[in-house]
Amino acid sequence: MRTGVDKGRIMCLVLFSLYVNDMPTPFRHVELVLYTDNPPIIATSSQPALLISYLVAYLSDIGR
Question: So where are the chain's domains?
Fold first, then answer.
């Protein structure tokens, strides 16, 4: 039995669109790169403690 959705099929495009539109909007110092189904979350800061707090805050928004 096969699982998953073949790339390039209409269902794949619809599911990706639903996935992307459900992501919370990134805030200051956080960027979301939407290319595939594994979007990297990029945060920028010169202070490691702030960098971690930005990532934790955004990840908690995703979990809601």
Answer: 24-63
